[in-house]
Amino acid sequence: MREEPTPFVTILSLTSLRSSLTEMTLFKHAAHVKPDTTTPRSPAQDLASKETGAALSPAFLGANLFTDDKMRQAAPTAYSELEVARTTGAPLSRKVKDEIAKAMMDWAVKRGAVNFAHWFSPMRGVNAQKHDGFMDLDFSSPSVLKPMRKDFDGTKLFMAETDGSSFPNGGLRFTHTAAAFNSWDMKSPPFVRGETMYIPSCFVAWTGMALDEKTPLLRSMAAINEQGKRLLGLIGEKSIAEVRTFVGWEQEFFVVSKEAYLRRPDLMMCNRTVIGAPPPANQQLELGYFGPMPNAVARYCEALQKELWLLGCPMTTYHNEVAPGQHELAPIFSVSNVAVDQNMMCMELMQSLADMHGLYICFHEKPFKGVNGNGKHNNWSVQGILSSPGGGSVNMMKPGKAEQDQVRFMVATACLARGIKMHGDVVRCACIGAGNDHRLGAQEAPPAIMSLFPGVAVEAHMHAIVKGGPLTGYTGEQKALKYGCNNTQEITVNAEDRNRTAPFPHCGNRFEFRAVGGPANMAHANTLINTVLADSFCAWSDLVEGGLSPRDATAKILEESISAVFTGNGYDPEWPKIAVEERGLLNLHNTVTALDTFASEKNQELFSKHGVYLPEEVKARADVMFEKYFLTISIETKTMIEMINTALVPACAKDLKTYEGTALAGKRPALYASLLDAVAALEAAYDAIPHADVQTEAHYVSDALVPAMAAVRKVADEIEVVMEKGVYPFPTYLELLTGHH
Length: 741
Known about the structure:
Family: Belongs to the glutamine synthetase family.
CATH class of the domain at 64-211: Alpha Beta
GO molecular function: glutamine synthetase activity
Pfam families: Gln-synt_C, Gln-synt_C-ter, GSIII_N
Number of helices: 23
CATH superfamily of the domain at 64-211: Glutamine synthetase, N-terminal domain
Domain GS catalytic: 213-648
Strand content: 5-15%
Shape: globular
Radius of gyration: 27 Å
Protein name: GS catalytic domain-containing protein
Structural class: alpha+beta
Largest sheet: 8 strands, antiparallel
Distance between the termini: 26 Å
CATH topology of the domain at 64-211: Ubiquitin-like (UB roll)
């Protein structure tokens, strides 16, 4: 009998040190590991395999997504009013809400759902959900014991209440003031998984303050819309109905056998290894990148792709990454709030489906020392949607042969340069995290210094504008590329080469924010970069409305911010010195130094001005991020201490017995003894954690625990490579990275 998929992953809080949840969560798994010889098939695979090509049929693609077309067909009048509400914020009548809810429920029930869940994104890195049945009591019945009936109305769709104090909130909620509410994001369609219809939702306190990642993202998109239309109007584009941001994400991840995962307490507690020596060969020969996928992973990705297609997520690409055991997948881009929802849905589905395949998926930014880590590349563009008949759009981040395209691109790129120069601290806070501190600048990801790479020719054109040149002149015209043989056709490629060392490179029709960490909710990063760009659109428009020409306003902005444009090698060891001393850029080298800037008066004014965060929300979010960092490092420290004391030290004693009475022990006695000294120092540092505000605590663990952990790890990893293989108590990197192949 075919096995049914496991439910959505259940999140288990590990924050006994604090009540709020953190990203350091573990996914509950059954103890039984399914044998590889009987890899189960998902429902999507069964459905797709009924006939050749069925997975590509219109009846399959997006079948479990309640699209606009399905809503329009089911409730045309209500849909028309919903369209107006989406654009203007106009209230919907109770009747319209009920009609939308009924259409939604009827569709979901046909797809096998009996429950619904408001699916939302608290400030913790993983989404939340509460399952409610499409059922209620029939209170119109005269019976004392009311009968049950199928039910789902507009009130249930547009409002759900929960306890806001039990989620990370930075002091915005307390046990005695705990009310918080969900409401459907009307521009993100519900989807069905298993027996539940998931409703992408916002999450705010009784006060209206945001307790989630989605609400600020939607506010920032509104800011981009307001300031983008204003700017485009000032360069003569009057027929813009809306300005939208789009995101195409690339998700990196490691695959580990579940059996090995369950024998690594650090992976279970921290999602990364806190000890572990790289094998002699891992990624040095670059054999893995785009290589043939291991069979187990290939079967898993095939199943995952069909599940995502069924859910309406257009995942088109998957491949091996550089590191052994590492892979990447990516869908086609979408409007930002939907793209973020698709990514969160994808990560949940990946973990749940991996359990069926006897695998574990690790998204951590740096799960294995000495091996490339996981990022989530954020391909970001801003487009003006035309109001003219036939629609269409103009991409503000794509140059072209037409002069208007050139003007639009140069103005938008100059504004982005200003945003990074003036608000580099905000952009840096878009990629913070204890895990990302291991990754940024590690010859695999951009450095922690925020700069813009628009392309060498674009930079030259910027300098020409500053000196008095016109906005027009850069077309970004693609160049022809020949392979030098007759077996291939000539192709066209982007006008500029690709710079993988830049945190914000231009890629022909978009900018790619490469610094986001693998497990992150992208809503946070996109909220911040949207706000920064909206602010620069506003500053440019103020200059033009104040009397400057578009050319002169752009030149003025570039003159003040072109130092943030860097087209060189971001891995050059001289770059940090040049960036800080010659260009005045910030080098916020780790999470705590970046977070020190987040709630500054400048940033409170920035977010408040554009309606993204109130000052209280900025401070609360800073507290949540500081506490998350503190808890993450604390959990990692405690995990390391327990692994050393309860497993590695006993293994050392056992290993030494092998050499009793011989001269073969070599350096082992001294090396093993040094481990006790290093752990004792770490324990002392852990015991000395101050009971203070979260910012002070975060700085303490960064300054004291992180280097003490590094010292313990250095000794532990040296021990691993000399200890008898059968005595070492944990799966090694070789087993973790290749054991499932």
